[in-house]
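Here is one chain, start to finish.
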Amino acid sequence: MDLFDKCRQFDFALQSARARNRLFYSRAIAPAAAPVTTREGRELVNLGSNNYLGLTEHPQVKAAAAAAIAGFGTGSAGSRLLTGTTPLHLEMERALAEFKGVEAIVTFSTGFMTLSATVSTLAGEGDFIFSDELNHASIIDGCRRSQARTIVYRHNDPADLEAKLKQVPGEAAKLIVTDGVFSMEGDICDLPGLRRLADAHNCKLIVDDAHATGVLGRTGRGTAEHYGMEGKVDVTSGTLSKSLAAIGGFSGGPRAVVDFLRYNARASVFSASLPPSVAATVITALGILKSEPERVERLRANARFMSGELKKAGFSVHDHGTPILPISVGDDDRAYQAAGRLEQEGVFANPVVFPAVPPGQAIIRISLMATHTEEQLRTALEKFTLVGKELRII
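Its structure:
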């Protein structure tokens, strides 16, 4: 056996998929996060981006990033512990902590790195982690790296979680970890149920607000605000790459916990810090969100409109009150066909197939922005209806 045999086999499968027009990943679009994008010279309504509040295109955000590059350069060239901390990094973490209502925040260079590092640093050998079966891959990675015993509970099922908690020694150190908004389905975790179980079984609770920040709650502060439970989550994590228009991630909670992560998480200690321009972007994005909370309601209005119209057209849409709308299409091949035809008709949307979803339950996953106009959404709906009828999805 040659170490690269698997690479060659994968390459053969990749080329085969490309030849059959079944490869819809790594498609180059520009701008990547705008409501309308271009691909190979053609305009497409972009229903694939997680730029929920539309802030990547905001003039103030772009100006702040440009000013930071002019003043601080393009990168930090060092870890946060050594030469990678600027006043902008400290201001960003203070602004995030205020926004999320926690004592302190530590930032990481990617959202994936954030959850993987947070889970694996806080839980270790001899501990127990209880993880929702549909948690993001970053959480799964953190569970594996932690050396704790990981117990997976059925998706959003407090009864199954409770049964599994009862099987663990009461004196053991335990952690429950969940997405706030689940990235594929768009549904919301049962935070009240998780908090009740965490209190009853002496567990700590981590909620990943990657898809909830800027989305849930009256002012977009996330899952805890959505449920009126601010201050009831032990560690709140999230990403800077969606509603906050940048790249990176954060974990926040009690100052002692945050400092432990800052000085013990290998992804923090041994990774270069975020560029100062990212910090300036996040600071400015938070300021706009604070001064323009109506963006959150516009996002919800767009989601309600799109979901309602798709259902009227006959599509099976999983609507959980978030801007993530999975549309059931059937098998994997039909999902690829739908994505290809939608692109031909001027709509960019993402096919999601096995193993990301169960076999035979492929979806077209669309995500909406506050900055989508009704005209853009109606254009997309017209094309969805055309393709849906053509492929007998509706």
